[in-house]
């Protein structure tokens, strides 16, 4: 009996009603609204995740997973590095010194940061530097510069590049900034304009000579496959004598802004599904109002109010659920097209890639589906509840 009533009402109210065509139009709009809304939300989440991971990857490479810095009373030297290597044999270490410099050409100046590193160690932890030095080798006063700097100044391999340092040399009765000419040996390309324009690398011993530095370092860059856990262990091992920073802490504001943007986008796009679900409410309420006499007659013939409620609730879930299934299929088709064809091309110097990054995480997918399902269920419940509140005697007497 229950299945018979449910099936009967579903097929009856889904059929096109010539007398009330607006009810079917409202159902169709509800179906399309849920479908398009869910599709847009899934595609937007995939694009946001893709950009998040792409930026994270770029920052991860050039900022290094973990960085150790000395405090004013501590010292970063080879003894400390050897202790860390023994304590953490799975990690890779690259000590460095750095200084802010000015790049000078014939007609222009450009600020930047010059790193002095041991390139054998640096290539172990920095994939960008490793790719740039597959053939070439940096030694003495050779320099590795970014591709953006090469383009801006029209430089090429073998050119001399004048670097102005902040430390001063005594010259007569005045102090003048120290200037050194480096030989351009190679160029790197990280995909992010800031690093390709501002970062430069040279041999650590060569930079020590220019800066009159002893056998110490400004810090240690560390590569780790599990930076969150290893950072805790390093902090525990070093105590308060050194500052240990993870790459996510160095760019915390940036990634917090991305996370906030993603949450806001999720809420705003979920409103599309909410608005579409209002059509489910309106169409079911119109059916209830126009079929009051039929509902009252079914109740008088022995149908329970629970059966009537389930029938209208199932009708709403059928409209919304079919829209959700269609939206999911449509979203995956769009993601497949965007992922396999160059429909959208991005400027590489801004985004670090020319291809639209896409990554729909399982968590986002299920959160989106659950959110849409809850909205559709709530939209179906209210009209179903109203259908059970029909007064049988008054309705049959008056209608």
Model description:
The chain is an alpha+beta fold and 399 residues long. The chain folds into two domains: 2-59 and 254-398, no CATH class; 66-223, no CATH class. It is 59% helix and 19% strand. It has a six-stranded mixed β-barrel. Helix 1 packs across helix 13 (305-340), helix 2 runs antiparallel to helix 11 (252-290) and helix 11 crosses helix 13 (305-340). 32% of the residues are buried.
Radius of gyration: 33 Å
Q: How many structural units, i.e. domains?
A: 2
The dominant shape is elongated
Order of helices and strands: HHEHEEHHEHEEHEHEHEHHHHHHH
User: How many runs of DSSP E, i.e. beta strands?
Assistant: 9
Q: Helix/strand/pairing class, anyone?
A: alpha+beta
Biggest sheet: strands side by side, in what order? Answer: 2-3-7-4-6-5
Portion in beta strands: 15-25%
- The overall pLDDT average reads 82
Gap between N and C termini: 26 Å
How many DSSP helices? 16
Helix content: 55-70%
